[in-house]
Amino acid sequence: MPMAFVTGATGFVGINLVDELLERGWQVTCLVRAGSNTRYLSKRAVRIVNGSITDLDSLRSAMPAAPEAVFHVAGDTNMWSRNNDRQTANNVTGTRNMCTVALEKRAKRFIHTSTISAWGLVDGTITEDTPMKGGLSWINYQKSKFLAEQEVRKAIERGLDAVILNPGAIVGAQDSHTWARLFLMVAQDELQAIPPGALSFAHVREVVRAHVAAYELGRTGANYILGGTDATMRDFVTEICRRLGKPRVPSVLPLGVLSVFARLYALRGALTGREPPITPEVAAMAAKTNPCPSLRAQEDLGYQTRPLAEMVADCADWLIAQGYIERPA
Fold it and tell me: Is residue 42 in a domain?
């Protein structure tokens, strides 16, 4: 029975990855921070160990010797500059620590979950050959994820067998905190406008299958973009409204107006100490249109894409089943 060590297992992608590994007969150890919500994870046949990716000693105690795979899924997706120091510690120092301990423990392979955002605020189509500019970005999420990839590459030079995955916007079941917030706003008639821009949407089940395939088939040191259905934010929200029985689709907010609101919210957040609902970082990223072909992942990993309607349905149905959203009449 192969052994996997998984970080970020209480999160959206992590819990789906755990399910995929268990279905394939893996023995799974999950690193969980003290105080994390293990409501869903504790129902799985996994070993849960406490620790933090920012604490080397706790990692050394938590990671078993010679695991077949280390899946480093944990990441800080913060979009508020007030939390930049914490985010850098989690994404950069945390990844450095994970690589260090994986080398010490002689992990067979290290799968690093990065993001399309590691390319930074680039224009047009993104492929694996597009020069990465995340290190130059003023958005700390993009910069920290770029720098995290550099930590993986340094570890590869020291002998770590690692593969890097770059998902787009991930949608699907078991999401209660990422895109699920948008579903909740639609369900509660709180979404007043839609941001401009477009994204490449990926189904979470295909993303986690690609993680396992990366362990089995990925090329050491390679990046694999996991994109999917390219759609505007209006397309996405329209599909959510349709699934939740909401006839009114909000209008698209012009970028200039969105940016003004973002700056005002950021100012209020600085005064109150409360995280704003929209930040300049969110506004800047929401305005981009970056198609993300997944040809390398399709060829090497057998990665597949699914229709937007299917991902939206899976997310909505799970939220309804868990009581987050009322079933449409």
Answer: yes
Whether pTM exceeds 0.85: yes
Provide the domain limits for residue 33: 3-174+200-230+290-306
Q: From CA 268, how far away is CA 127, in angstroms rounded?
A: 38
Residue-wise pLDDT for 277-294, tens only, equals: 889 998 899 888 999 999
CA 307 to chain centroid: 19
Q: Is 79 part of any domain?
A: yes
* Coil, strand or helix at 203: strand
Query: What is the distance in angstroms between the CA of the first residue and the CA of the last residue of the chain?
Result: 46
Which CATH number characterizes residue 142's domain? 3.40.50.720
Q: Are strands 198-203 and 229-232 parallel, antiparallel or unpaired?
A: antiparallel
Query: Is 184 among the domain residues?
Result: no
Q: What is the pLDDT of residues 231-244, one digit of tens each?
A: 999 999 999 999 99
Cα distances (angstroms) measured from residue 98 to each of 86, 101, 102, 110, 250 = 17, 5, 6, 9, 43
Q: Are 172 and 311 in contact (CB under 8 A)?
A: yes
3-state secondary structure 311-322: HHHHHHHHHHHC
Half-sphere exposure at residue 239, Cβ-oriented, CA atoms within 13 angstroms? 18
Residue 149, Ramachandran bin (φ over 0: left; ψ between -120 and 50: alpha; else beta): alpha
Using one digit for the tens of pLDDT, what is the confidence trace for 166-215? 999 999 999 998 999 999 999 999 988 898 999 999 999 999 999 999 99
Q: How many domains does the chain have?
A: 1
